[in-house]
Amino acid sequence: MATTADMRSGLIIKLDGSLYSVVEFGQNKTARAAAKVWAKLKGVDNNRTIEQTWNSGETIFPVRVEKKTYQYLYKDETGYSFMDVETFEQLTVVESMVNAPQYLKDGQEVTVLVNGETDLPIGVELPEKIEVLVTYSEPGMKGDTTSRVMKPATIETGATVNVPLFVNEGETIRVNTKSGEYLERVKN
Question: Is the overall model pTM greater than 0.70, yes or no?
Fold first, then answer.
């Protein structure tokens, strides 16, 4: 058991029988009333996003989460298949459990979040930054560098990312998986 003083971003708590991840939190204190702690919560086992308020010092119920390294294998009609890099056991999860499925590529290592109480997977997280190959991009126009002009580019996973005009087909770029934004060109 923990209290609202233990609240932090990324913490997974049990609330009304469901699991929620803390996205954002803060404290409101007024001169006349007791302090309140608020949190924006994203459902781990459902697709809901809610806001919750507690009195300061109130009990919350965090869930013990283990992070294990898995390797992405393939996708079929049952879902996304991953393999534990230590035990070689395979695991299949539905698409909604993967935080950015459009950036998964064969052999990529990911982190699988496992509920410590039930030993069931509750989510799959990709690394924050990944390197991908640009498979298709329109050529940029020379001289158009006065502003940060972006163009769509298709990457090796099939997703589309907006990139600067100087990025060409066949180059490797770094992409933020949380926001889907182009970060930089990778020198080979």
Answer: yes
